[in-house]
Amino acid sequence: MAEQVRQGPVGVRAAGPEDAEFLVDMLLEAFNWSGEERFTRKQILKDKSTSLYVAGWQREGDLGLIAVDLAGPSGLQIPIGAAWLRRFPARNPGYAFIAEDVPELSIAVAKPHRGRGIGTGLLRSLATKAREQGVHRISLSVAHGNPAKELYTSLGFTTHSEQEGATTLVLDLRTSPLGQPAR
User: Fold this and answer.
1) Pfam families, per this entry (predicted)?
2) Residue 37 pLDDT greater than 90, yes or no
3) Cα-Cα-Cα-Cα dihedral of 142, 148, 152, 155, to 10°?
4) Domains of the chain, earliest start first
């Protein structure tokens, strides 16, 4: 499933256990979205409230996609973005916890590749896969001031709740056109 973007071809593939380290990289991008280093890699891995998004990847129920640059040197497919879903128990919730049957979305694109539609493509593809696997809703926490909130709301996410410094958004895959088969 390759699509042409302004700066070269980008493909999307399933995330596997071998992508765990790259997911940490992308989680770091997501938490440091403003360009300010709020977290280091070591902090993300050490802090239970952040490491739970990647620890033990890929466990049962995890679903993720990796965006790859198909024009890498020597034909290498270089990972440039990721979107993944993970469910959490009520006793150990993530930032956007709504219910145990509502997986939380994590998504990031490496800085040099932002603004090319890669995140939107990942999100559309992941929503389709999630719907195919029987997921009804997905949630996401977005920090106040993060311009990505505009993208999420344009794709059908709605506000579920407000916390200090962040908004929890939810997407209902049963009613949203995101992830629906093309007609």
Assistant:
1) Acetyltransf_1
2) no
3) 180
4) 2-172 (3.40.630.30)
Global pTM reads 0.90
Give yes or no for residue 3 having a pLDDT over 70: no
- Expressed in percent and rounded to 5, the helix, strand and coil fractions of the chain are 30, 30, 40
- Long-range own/partner contacts, residues 60-63 (CB < 8 A, 24 or more apart): 61/86, 61/87, 61/103, 62/15, 62/86, 63/103, 63/126, 63/129, 63/130, 63/133, 63/135
Cα angle: 21, vertex 68, 10; to 5 degrees: 160
C-alpha neighbours within 13 Å on the C-beta side of residue 130:
32
- What pLDDT sits at residue 179? 67
If you count DSSP H runs as helices and E runs as strands, how many of each does the chain have, helices first? 5, 8
Cβ neighbours, 10 Å, residue 128: 17
C-alpha to C-alpha distance for 63 and 45, rounded to whole angstroms: 20
